[in-house]
Give the backbone structure.
Amino acid sequence: MRKAPKYYLLIIVCFLATGEFAFATKPLETLERCELVPTKWSDGDSFLIRTAEGEEYTLRLYGADCVEWHVTDDSDARRLRAQRRYFGISEVGGSPQASIETAKDFGAEAGRKMAALLGEPFTVHTAFSDARGDGKYQRFYGFVTTSGGKDLAEELVRLGLARAFGVYRETPTGMSGKEYRANLEDVELLAAKRGMGVWAKTNWDLLSEERREERRDAEELEIAIAKPKLEVGTKINPNTAARDQLMLLPGVGEVTANRIIEARPFGKLADLLEVDGIGPKTLERLEIYLTLP
């Protein structure tokens, strides 16, 4: 008789203890002696790996967001603009074009640093959670421990080549997702203080206004693509939808979409109330667009 996977045994234990099926976060699997597969599209936080068994996966780091430098559509361009404003570098060089080129240069540098740190076999920890952004390309979230024992996301943030932003979860060492987020934010603060990486170009006098401008633009964009964003009858599964699909939901921006992904899987729609930013009124607006088969 085939043994049940540990994840499902955990769900059964939760049922026996509580009388209800409590959906727990899938445990991480450890893939040792992985290698980086060079590609033209990889960057600091998203890249192709090959396991010791020869299987290939596209990995997206938990917790770190490097500057876009492969900008091919409007979504990439908006993300690059948001990143430039986050780091306070929109005025670098005296023109938008100069600022964009500077930002892309740092994105490329992050990709080179990632490749250097992964020059020797490394360890990946993943639950194979779907990390698709636009839904076209299969990616999985994961943690990477370098051959030198460093957490890759933390190292990129420490060097000022990434911001602490994205999806978080419990780490391989048992640190909670909330604590991992706080840790990376602290590392980012130190990188900014030391003028590391992109932070060396930050205009501190304009940083606050740039971030306010980004929030205003995001709000205006929400209004411009007025509700409903989805056709009547369209249903999205919050357990499997890509980030950009979740962002089609009314009142759901990138931050809330990331938090939905962090909280997966959901046993019932009411479980979405556990997601920071989703209250009863928001859930009521979302329910007509959601399904849990």
Remarks:
- The first strand starts at residue 29 and ends at 37.
- The chain has two domains: 26-208, 225-289.
